[in-house]
Amino acid sequence: MQDKYAIPFLIRVLEDRNQEPMVRHEAGEALGAIGSPQVIDVLTKFLKDDQIEVAETCELALERIKWLQERRKHEEGKISSNPYCSVDPAPPDLSSMDDVDSLRKTLLDESLPLFKRYRALFSLRNIGGTKSVVALAEGLGCNSALFRHEIAYVLGQMQHEACVTQLKECLEKNGENPMVRHECAEALGAIAKGECREILEQFAQDKERVVKESCLVALDMHDYQTSNELEYTKTIDKIKNGVTSN
């Protein structure tokens, strides 16, 4: 929504250390999405937060605001368009716009700034296709939980079954950050192909509440996706057979 009216409420959530890290992360990311310079001081204050996911979120939000202020107008028309109409925490990469191998190298290079790697991430998403999906899925093995969670989110947007195995492995991994497992579950629900339903059912009673609830939501997403496909197929068959409803 990117409504500045929400800023004080989001700041309150970000500042509340009694909140779950995932909730504080969402508040910080929303502040970056709104993109107002008035939140720079607040975000800067949390760059050294005890919760690394919150600290990295604020780092990305600050970089996005800086990009909006300094580089957006120079890069418009030169970066790939977002086919999903989402407000992302970073714009796509300016260079190597369609070079999957180069973008993959940037994505997986953990010595680079997180914002630069996020830009490669969203470029790969915008390019699409199996090769991009496989490259992105490799990012599920990177060190940053925030980065892994964003990879899973993007794979859910792309809805490509080439990453089902990697998402499954991440969801079932002992000790994986619940925020990452949550996004893996929702991605499997969005993909809704092959063994996705079976995987989600396996974790629908997980001991982590956020994972359990995500799997239940993902199962509903899966059923919605597949029921729509069935209805669409039935409609096409009727048209082919010359059957119309009264």
From TrEMBL:
Pathway: Protein modification; eIF5A hypusination. Keywords: Hypusine biosynthesis, Iron, Metal-binding, Monooxygenase, Oxidoreductase, Repeat. Its cofactor is Fe(2+). The keyword Repeat applies. InterPro entries: ARM-like (IPR011989), ARM-type_fold (IPR016024), PBS_lyase_HEAT (IPR004155). It holds the Pfam family HEAT_2. Its EC number is 1.14.99.29. One of its GO terms (molecular function) is metal ion binding. It catalyses: [eIF5A protein]-deoxyhypusine + AH2 + O2 = [eIF5A protein]-hypusine + A + H2O. The keyword Protease does not apply. PANTHER family: DEOXYHYPUSINE HYDROXYLASE (PTHR12697:SF5), PBS LYASE HEAT-LIKE PROTEIN (PTHR12697). This is deoxyhypusine monooxygenase.
